[in-house]
Amino acid sequence: MALRSLATRKTLTLALKSTRLAQSRALQTFSLPDLPYDYGALEPAISGEIMQLHHQKHHQTYITNYNKALEQLHDAIQKGDSSTVVKLQSAIKFNGGGHINHSIFWKNLAPISEGGGEPPHGSLGWAIDTNFGSLESLIQKMNAEGAALQGSGWVWLGLDKELKKLVVETTTNQDPLVTNGPNLVPLLGIDVWEHAYYLQYKNVRPDYLKNVWKVINWKYASEVYEKESA
Amino acid sequence: MAATTSMVTSLTFTIPSLGFRLPTRSYPCVKPQRRFVRKAASNVITATYELKAPPYPLNALEPHMSRETLEYHWGKHHRTYVENLNKQVVGTDLEGLSLEDIIIVTYNKGDILPAFNNAAQAWNHDFFWESMKPGGGGKPSGDLLDLIERDFGSFERFIEEFKSAAATQFGSGWAWLAYKANRLDVENAVNPWPSEKDKKLVIVKSPNAMNPLVWDYFPLLTIDVWEHAYYLDFQNQRPDYISVFMEKLVSWETVNTRLEKAKARAAEREMEEERRRKEEEEGKPTNEEDDDDDLEIEFLEEKRP
Fold this sequence. Notes:
By secondary structure, chain A is mainly alpha-helical. Chain A is built from 10 helices and 3 strands. In chain A, a hairpin with a 4-residue loop joins strand 1 and strand 2. Chain A is globular and about 60 Å long. The termini of chain A are far apart. The model of chain A has no long low-confidence stretch (mean pLDDT 92). Chain B is mainly alpha-helical. The longest helix of chain B has 30 residues. Chain B is globular and about 65 Å long. Chains A and B meet through helix 3 of A and helix 2 of B.
């Protein structure tokens, strides 16, 4: 009997409304993903000191600021405050991009003992040879573009899903690869912000680029390639 | 090479022989000045840009900015910009121009040409070293303090705004205090703003190699917020670096000197424009072409031994 009275139309509608409200209020917050290896595991290519700062300070800060910006965005949307919504776009791109890019980066790296540096086999290896002639020539191209990048940014190996080919791209600051083209999928990104190498390589970015390939995790890049080109 | 401490005296203009002409009128501070270095045992005059040392020993800013940072920042980064600039400029129309002129020309109204990054960064770093001194920091005085208080409300507000600009320049770049005296170009109309409104202090931030010269401002102070400027000493803590810079390193004397020169140049420009406007009103043909020829002749005469 009590159940019947509870389930009147009025209460049901109210219940539905409040669930919807709760859903729209629920904002996903992001947190720092764990590294699948120790900070020191990528030495001597990348020092443990850099890995720790890069992960615990830089990436964490992007996440903290991304969450803050999303919360502010959420409020502004609810209030219909368009100018705040637009004003927040750059903070979201900077910090959200920083979170996206670094999350990919940690997976792009692996200790040598776990396959870091091992060249890609299978379909990705074949696609690299087709698109660039050889792995060496791809690496040369990415290193040249990475070294020439002015200021801060990333150099990427990407898959253009529409044209079905591999591309080398660079993005500025924390722009994710997708800002260069909506059909681009990142397979491999190398951070060329100074914080990624300065303590170890100082101003010699080309040395960092030369050495980072020793810990590049081609297994992950292959997995993404196979999934996205299926 | 002439000192680059003040942008006022270091701008020069076109080299007649190259047929590459800069419209002298449009630059903020133009004074014909020889910028050539005569190479020993050669009749060929070439200009090369030299890496100027900071006006203090590399360890003089410790403990606020380490010797190691200066060794890399000045000894490697700054040096590389200068070396690469020289390589880019040799044998081109840019050869022989002052650094400021190269910056303006290669900025190319936003469609930047290859030499811009190296030229602007060479200039920016000279300006940066000179913006600091051992035992710096504290508070400015006199005219400079008056203007700061007028344009920002208080010295504390200015510090807050400057620090915020430096902290929020995302990625690589610079934060600046500049004197803005570029008047509204209204062609045949009279500038609607009274001149006091034009001459004010502003804080601006710029990405990568950009600097306020391209916006026709007079830079007074800068802080480098590329990560290489602070990473060895502060790692990711940019705000700490900025605070230390403001409290312990800024050379307010230099900023003051720059402000005086900026004001003087702005006044000169004003008089120039007044004179030209009067001439136009009186129906005289504008002498732009003739004036430039005169200056060219002067230059050529100077060159002949």
